[in-house]
Amino acid sequence: MTDKKNVIKAGYLISYDYAYIFNSLKLIYNHVDSIIISYDADNKTWAGNDILIPESFFTEIKAIDIHNKIAFYKDQFYIPNREPMELETRQRNMMAEKMGNGGWHIQIDSDEYAYDFGTMAKFLRKNRFLTKNPKKTPINFLVNLIVLFKNNKDGYYVIQPSHSMRRAS
Asked: 18: closest CA among 47, 36, 39?
């Protein structure tokens, strides 16, 4: 059953690229009902490398969370002798469970930015009836990703699927 007050749920996976989340959050914050930020309790990447997420990161997140939408989820996502892709899938599944039943689940990496998220949110709210019976009628959306490699005063360098680069303004 869908919670009418928690229709759009976003989940972030945080690791070594944690600082990028601030740009991403700005684009979705006003359009989602709840946000889960997941990170490894032992400060490990999926490859087992050490990372340090400073306490100032959590302080900054709390400061921008003026509507109390954000919850932190810390768990042991790294398991020795497992492949990083397996651990990524595991973290995503565990985070999905934390997000709870019902509604739309949107999982985002901290370095991914949603273009015109408001339009998508409007579509999802209008079509929330599609989430009433997810076991019978599961729905997945695929989105086009654009990799912004670097920016300068003229715009961004975009990596095309063929791995060529061109500028977008």
From this structure: 39
Q: For the CA atoms of 89, 85, 137, 29, what is the dihedral angle to 10 degrees? A: 60
Count Cβ atoms within 10 A of the Cβ of residue 30 and give its class: 0-12 exposed, 13-18 middle, 19 or more buried.
exposed
Instruction: Characterize the bridge pairing of strands 155-159 and 147-152.
Output: antiparallel
Residue 143: the pLDDT is 72
Instruction: List, for residues 42-101, the tens digit of each pLDDT value.
Output: 999 999 999 999 999 999 999 999 999 999 999 999 999 999 999 999 999 999 999 998
Nearest to 77 by CA among 104, 102, 95, 54: 95
Q: Please answer whether residues 14 and 37 qualify as being in contact, where contact means their C-beta atoms are separated by less than 8 angstroms.
A: yes
Q: Please report which confidence band the pLDDT of residue 135 belongs to, taking 50, 70 and 90 as the band edges.
A: confident
153 burial type by CB count under 10 A (0-12 exposed, 13-18 middle, 19+ buried): exposed
Percent of the chain predicted with pLDDT > 70: 92
Give me the domains of the chain, ranges plus CATH numbers: 8-126 (3.90.550.10), 145-169 (no CATH)
